[in-house]
């Protein structure tokens, strides 16, 4: 598990949350680490089984469940306390019970009616707004046949031309997953739905952070660096940490230690950057803010993907070395 808290030697019990969990759980394009939310992911997987309960009634596993728990009104019964935990969880997803996010599964499935044979007029959700039994509860109470299909309702003289104008075609009804009507249920789309991932603007410097050449630990370091979440002295003080020694830079320059100062501003680091530029045969100033610095440094070579990857690796290696050096002091 990724440790985003850092224990300090003086105060081992206190942990600092460096980045909000919500941000960590965003995908990489959104500027996060793409860590999955376990609960929502688990629900998405259970949703897959709930979906299969609807669309795969010929499957052996379906028949086993029917044999074990029995059927009521076309649905496999929940069973009592003896039912397996997996089955109980699955029923909760199917029925939308006991979940803070409510009927997320049921509200996102609907029946696409073609010949109307396989769809229950009252109980299945086949029109906008959920099943007719919940929308018109009192009418449903009066209905004599609560399990009548749409096709039977049609045959009993219910007029064509309305919502079911296409009835009569020889095509089976089928289930639709609203977030993805053409493909059907997928764990991915359900997870997306459950986590309400708001599309955020493309995070900058993602190509640097997730450069494929560098080890993952360097990417994670870069991610913290470019989000200003490394435990520099100013960041520690801002989070209520009492520092035994001073808040000044360890380079002895007399300036307060911030990430910008440490990585690019301090004499110690800027002399390194100047040497690197000289070695590359390039002369000119670099910005003293890390996020500007990376943009400029990684574009110092003529255009070309390989040279850009190379300059990114170089930039990351220098930052990594500066940070290591600082921690050794
Ligand atoms: Zn300094």
UniProtKB/TrEMBL annotation:
Domain Reverse transcriptase zinc-binding residues, every copy: 185-273
UniProt xrefs under PANTHER family: OS05G0421675 PROTEIN (PTHR36617:SF5), PROTEIN, PUTATIVE-RELATED (PTHR36617)
Name of the protein in question: Reverse transcriptase zinc-binding domain-containing protein
Organism expressing this protein natively: Trifolium subterraneum (Subterranean clover)
């Amino acid at each position: 598990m990724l440790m985003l808290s850092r224990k300090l030697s003086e105060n081992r019990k206190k942990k600092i949350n460096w980045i909000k969990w919500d941000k960590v759980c965003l995908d990489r394009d959104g500027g996060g680490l793409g860590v999955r939310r376990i609960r929502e992911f688990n629900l998405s997987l259970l949703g897959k089984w709930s979906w299969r309960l609807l669309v795969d009634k010929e499957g052996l596993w379906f028949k086993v469940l029917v044999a074990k728990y029995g059927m009521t009104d076309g649905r496999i019964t929940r069973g009592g306390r003896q039912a397996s935990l997996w089955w109980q969880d699955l029923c909760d997803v199917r029925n939308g019970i006991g979940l803070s996010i409510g009927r997320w599964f049921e509200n996102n499935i609907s029946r696409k009616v073609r010949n109307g044979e396989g769809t229950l007029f009252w109980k299945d959700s086949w029109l906008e707004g959920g099943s007719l039994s919940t929308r018109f509860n009192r009418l449903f109470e009066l209905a004599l046949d609560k399990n009548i299909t749409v096709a039977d309702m049609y045959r009993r003289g219910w007029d064509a031309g309305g919502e079911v104008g296409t009835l009569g075609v020889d095509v089976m009804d089928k289930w639709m997953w609203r977030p993805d009507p053409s493909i059907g249920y997928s764990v991915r789309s359900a997870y997306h739905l459950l986590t309400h991932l708001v599309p955020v603007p493309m995070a900058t410097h993602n190509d640097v952070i997730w450069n494929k050449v560098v080890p993952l630990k360097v990417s994670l370091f870069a991610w913290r660096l470019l989000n200003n979440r490394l435990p520099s002295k100013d960041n520690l003080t801002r989070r209520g940490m009492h520092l035994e020694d001073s808040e000044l830079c360890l380079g002895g320059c007399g300036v307060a230690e911030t990430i910008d100062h440490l990585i690019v501003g301090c004499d110690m680091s800027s002399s390194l950057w100047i040497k690197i530029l000289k070695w590359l045969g390039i002369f000119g100033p670099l910005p003293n803010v890390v996020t500007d610095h990376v943009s400029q440094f990684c574009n110092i070579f003529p255009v070309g993907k390989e040279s850009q990857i190379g300059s990114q690796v170089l930039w990351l290696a220098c930052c990594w070395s500066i940070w290591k050096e600082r921690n050794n002091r």
